[in-house]
């Protein structure tokens, strides 16, 4: 029986993870749950799944009696003291970094859906994973696909990896119309049902930018080996091209249960009926992303070229700007506009340790808020 601590249990990754666990009650058991602010749902999940270890990070109290731990520090302690074998990090945004580090330092395997962990602290995370001899298992559908495509393959034989992208809510919108888009427009994703932040990031392709950075960090790849293609059907999750010029792809119907299950059960494989795909009559199309339209993708490559301090900055300023867009303080096109200003500034701190990383993150958030005014 594999024991699981599920972080971000009330979100979309959390729900899909619970679905997977419910499919395999003889193999999997949840022993801990966390949520940010939805204490009602967290409490309900605790009773439904018979889990006593419940942590609410975004509040310091709750009316629900089965929730007794609050705040980030108590979550980190709960992770360290848990008897879980693996932690699923489905927390959204930079708040997921410290729980990832706590997981690794306590010797538990990490199923990572929180891409910001690698974007902010990839070199540190890889170092800690080696030192503590844990498995770092990607849960993003694209990175899960690459992980399995690269298994038992020499990395020097890989010429490039190709991450696919749906194109987000504005895939078919002419570029000149972007200045008119609203928050409601940005929240209409063509393929996935996700939280507001990641859906807006998909519309700007900041999400794919974060995934490019994550791939570089996870798989130790040079920036020129990571490509992106728009694939509206979302059947091909990623591809690799090897040195004989042949290509390999992971293809399935889109369902986050597949990468989650593959991470939890690794190295075993079990059927995920919802991802079965009959290719007969299906059309698969691929186009290059328009980097003038999707400036946030282009800026992610710039951040990677400039180094880890700038990948931290890319994530920090984007989080601030998306919040501002949600609060109708800036327009959609001001997200890449202000991000470019931040990335062209001089960041003098070197991210040599966790304190440096958090210092850069704090500094960039402050600078971005000042820019917005």
TrEMBL record:
Enzyme class (EC, first level): oxidoreductase
Domain DXP reductoisomerase C-terminal: 252-366
Domain of life per record: Bacteria
Cofactor: Mg(2+); Mn(2+)
EC number(s) from the headed UniProt entry: 1.1.1.267
Biological or metabolic pathway of the protein: Isoprenoid biosynthesis; isopentenyl diphosphate biosynthesis via DXP pathway; isopentenyl diphosphate from 1-deoxy-D-xylulose 5-phosphate: step 1/6
Recorded catalytic activity of this chain's protein: 2-C-methyl-D-erythritol 4-phosphate + NADP(+) = 1-deoxy-D-xylulose 5-phosphate + NADPH + H(+)
Binding residue positions for NADPH: 10-13, 38, 114, 116, 195
Keywords attached to this entry: Isomerase, Isoprene biosynthesis, Magnesium, Manganese, Metal-binding, NADP, Oxidoreductase
Keyword NADP included in the entry's annotation: yes
GO MF annotation: an example: isomerase activity
Alphabetical list of Pfam families matching this protein: DXP_redisom_C, DXP_reductoisom, DXPR_C
Gene3D superfamilies on file: 1.10.1740.10, NAD(P)-binding Rossmann-like Domain (3.40.50.720)
Domain 1-deoxy-D-xylulose 5-phosphate reductoisomerase C-terminal: from-to ranges: 136-219
Biological process, per Gene Ontology: isopentenyl diphosphate biosynthetic process, methylerythritol 4-phosphate pathway involved in terpenoid biosynthetic process
Annotated ranges, domain 1-deoxy-D-xylulose 5-phosphate reductoisomerase N-terminal: 4-122
Binding site for Mn(2+): 140, 142, 211
Residues given in the record as 1-deoxy-D-xylulose 5-phosphate binding sites: 115, 141-142, 166, 189, 202, 207-208, 211
Stated family: Belongs to the DXR family.
Task performed by this protein: Catalyzes the NADPH-dependent rearrangement and reduction of 1-deoxy-D-xylulose-5-phosphate (DXP) to 2-C-methyl-D-erythritol 4-phosphate (MEP).
Protein name per its UniProtKB record: 1-deoxy-D-xylulose 5-phosphate reductoisomerase
Organism: Thiospirochaeta perfilievii
Encoding gene (name): dxr
């Amino acid at each position: 029986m594999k024991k699981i601590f599920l972080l971000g249990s009330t979100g979309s990754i959390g729900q899909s993870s619970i679905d997977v666990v419910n499919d395999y009650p003889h193999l999997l058991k949840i022993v801990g749950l966390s949520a940010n602010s939805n204490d009602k749902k967290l409490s309900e999940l605790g009773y439904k799944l018979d889990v006593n270890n419940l942590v609410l990070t975004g509040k310091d109290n709750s009316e629900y009696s089965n929730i007794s731990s609050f705040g980030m520090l108590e979550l980190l302690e709960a992770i360290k003291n848990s008897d879980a074998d693996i932690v699923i990090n489905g927390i959204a945004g930079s708040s997921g970094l410290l729980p990832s580090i706590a997981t690794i330092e306590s010797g538990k395997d990490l199923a990572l859906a929180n891409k910001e962990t690698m974007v902010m602290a990839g070199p540190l995370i890889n170092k800690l994973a080696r030192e503590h001899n844990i498995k770092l298992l990607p849960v993003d559908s694209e990175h899960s696909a690459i992980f399995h495509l690269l298994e038992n393959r020499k990395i020097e034989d890989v010429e490039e990896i190709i991450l696919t992208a749906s194109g987000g809510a504005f895939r078919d919108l002419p570029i000149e119309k972007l200045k008119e888009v609203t928050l409601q427009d940005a929240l209409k994703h063509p393929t996935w049902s996700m939280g507001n932040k990641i859906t807006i990031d998909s519309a700007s392709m900041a999400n794919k930018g974060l995934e490019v950075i994550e791939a570089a960090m996870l798989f130790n790849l040079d920036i020129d080996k990571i490509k992106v293609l728009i694939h509206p059907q979302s059947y091909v999750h990623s591809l690799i091209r090897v040195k004989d010029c042949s290509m390999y792809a992971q293809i399935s119907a889109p369902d986050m249960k597949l990468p989650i299950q593959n991470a939890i059960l690794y190295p075993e494989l079990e059927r995920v009926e919802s991802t079965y795909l009959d290719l007969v009559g299906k059309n698969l199309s691929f186009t290059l992303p328009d980097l003038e339209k999707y400036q946030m993708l282009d800026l992610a490559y710039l951040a990677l070229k400039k180094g880890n301090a700038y990948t931290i900055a890319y994530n920090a300023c984007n989080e601030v700007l998306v919040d501002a867009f949600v609060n109708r303080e800036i327009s959609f096109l001001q997200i890449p506009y202000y991000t470019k200003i931040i990335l062209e500034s001089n960041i003098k701190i070197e991210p040599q340790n966790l304190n440096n990383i958090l210092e850069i993150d704090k500094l960039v958030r402050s600078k971005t808020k000042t820019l917005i005014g």
